[in-house]
Specification:
The chain is built from 11 helices and 15 strands. It is α+β, with helices and mostly antiparallel strands. Pfam families: DUF4389 (PF14333).
Length: about 475
């Protein structure tokens, strides 16, 4: 890649990551405001039952940091505490923490440490004296008193504060239900602003990534086997694709993995994981754009198709190197293009796609495959590699489902025999091949329904018109780059 494209790719990845973070934060704020707000716009906690045989219940962990900016959110923050006594009147007050500590010094009271549904955790204070009635104190910043539900509202100020709930006559024994809420006039604008900024950064990042990775011109695409129409044979194919061949070709060739490198591949794969997070966000965005284009034109834009195929190819190489196959110790290249590597993926670019299938194939038609793949690949998992006497240990994540178990068996076989069982490798590659075919179908890259089969073997099965590999050739030799099968 040219330096300018490398710079664009790095900048795009950074913008995508920041954009997703801002968008997620903004969406969380807006959804939380809409879902948990009361009639006055306060975000409220659930209702908690609090009771004590002591004189008071306190919460002393309220601390607000001072800010010199007049527009700081803390200055726009309003707190609301709603307390309902089981019987009789109740006093609710908020005051500086030091004043509350002096007032209750030596007085039996329970301090709320945390609120866990349905109970609250308390720290009991030793009894030594009887307090004076709370209403007689002059240090309260805000207070309410009376029978029935009492609501204390307070505009936040910097400092260290404490909330006190007592009987007005300072007698022991208290049972109440309480709920806290917070409101800020800046909350919704901040959420909307973060969401808008996140979407703009995401769009800019995706545009930079596409600009950096998209190949220019049909000639470049022909040299990769990607971007071909369904009626043309990709470069290197022995003949035109037959109707019985899948447009998605996933190739994996066993490449002498070592005994123990798989123990540290999780660390070696960190750079790829960071890049792939941004690339898969780009993949989703481009798929949405392509879906709209297919819906109105029946065509998948070739430039977007090339980038998405490259992302799948990159993902397959990393998966093949990593814990989805452990098929090689050759480090995956940082490129979307075909390369001299034991794993490869190509997809024939369709000349036309069904407009109507765009609306149903990614969720309804692909549902049977999702159910099967949930069993084959699982939702993730881990196995204990080393465990200490206290039950703690280092866990190595190898995935879940049948695939995870097979890869774990292969890893143990490599560790003790330095050999990867051939039949096991074929099964592992077959499950991965099934998964990538379903991804390509759900991502609108083909209308051909994925077959319910593994297609065992490292290389894809060749069409009837393709020449056979010479006798004595490698067991898992891949088909020529770009061959649709």
């Amino acid at each position: 890649m040219r330096p300018i494209r490398i710079v664009s790719l790095v900048a795009g990845i950074l913008l995508v990551v920041v954009g997703v973070g801002l968008g997620t934060a903004g969406t969380t704020v807006l959804v939380t405001s809409a879902a948990n707000g009361d009639e006055d716009g306060f975000l409220t906690t659930p209702t908690f039952d609090l009771q004590t045989s002591a004189y008071a219940i306190t919460a002393e962990e309220l601390e607000l940091v001072a800010s010199p900016a007049d527009w700081a959110p803390a200055r726009e923050l309003e707190l609301r505490l709603t307390v309902t006594p089981d019987t009789g009147p109740v006093f609710v007050g908020l005051a500086p923490r030091d004043d509350v500590a002096r007032y209750l010094d030596g007085v039996a009271h329970d301090e709320v440490q945390r609120l866990d549904l349905p109970d609250a955790a308390f720290t009991a204070r030793a009894v030594d004296r009887t307090p004076a009635p709370p209403a007689e104190q002059d240090f309260w910043a805000a207070s309410v008193e009376g029978s029935g539900r009492q609501t204390l509202d307070w505009t936040a100020e910097p400092g260290r504060w404490a909330v006190v709930v007592m009987n007005p006559d300072a007698t022991p024994g208290l049972a109440v239900t309480a709920r806290a809420g917070v409101q800020s006039s800046l909350l919704v604008p901040l959420g909307a602003g973060a969401l808008a900024a996140g979407l703009m950064l995401l769009a800019a990042g995706v545009a930079l990534i596409v600009g950096a990775l998209a190949r220019q011109g049909t000639g470049a695409r022909q040299g990769t086997g990607v971007g071909q129409t369904g009626t043309e044979a990709p470069l290197g194919a022995a003949g035109p694709a037959t109707p019985t061949c899948s447009p998605v070709a996933v190739v994996g060739r066993l490449d002498r993995p070592s005994r123990g490198l798989w123990l540290v591949k999780w660390l070696l794969l960190v750079p790829h994981a960071i890049v792939l997070v941004a690339l898969w966000i780009t993949f989703v965005v481009l798929t949405l754009v392509a879906g709209v284009a297919i819906l109105f034109t029946g065509r998948y834009p070739p430039s977007l198709f090339d980038v998405n195929v490259g992302i799948l190819r990159w993902s397959w190489r990393v998966s093949f190197y990593g814990y989805a196959a452990l098929g090689t110790d050759r480090y995956p290249p940082f490129t979307l293009e075909p390369a001299d590597y034991p794993a490869d993926l190509t997809i024939v670019h369709p000349e036309r796609l069904s407009r109507g299938l765009v609306l149903v194939k990614w969720w309804l038609l692909a549902l049977p495959h999702y159910l099967v793949l949930a069993v084959l690949t699982g939702g993730g998992g881990s196995w204990v590699v080393a465990e200490a006497g206290d039950g703690t240990g280092w866990r190595l994540a190898l995935g879940g489902g049948v695939l995870g178990i097979l890869v774990l068996v292969a890893a143990v076989a490599l560790l003790f025999t330095a050999r990867y069982p051939t039949g096991l490798f074929d099964l592992v590659v077959g499950i991965n091949r099934w998964a990538f075919r379903v991804i390509a179908y759900a991502a609108l890259m083909t209308d051909e329904y994925p077959p319910f089969r593994l297609d065992l073997g490292g290389g894809e099965p060749t069409p009837p018109t393709a020449p056979q590999a010479p006798t004595g050739g490698p067991t898992h030799a891949p088909v020529p780059t770009g061959q649709p099968v």
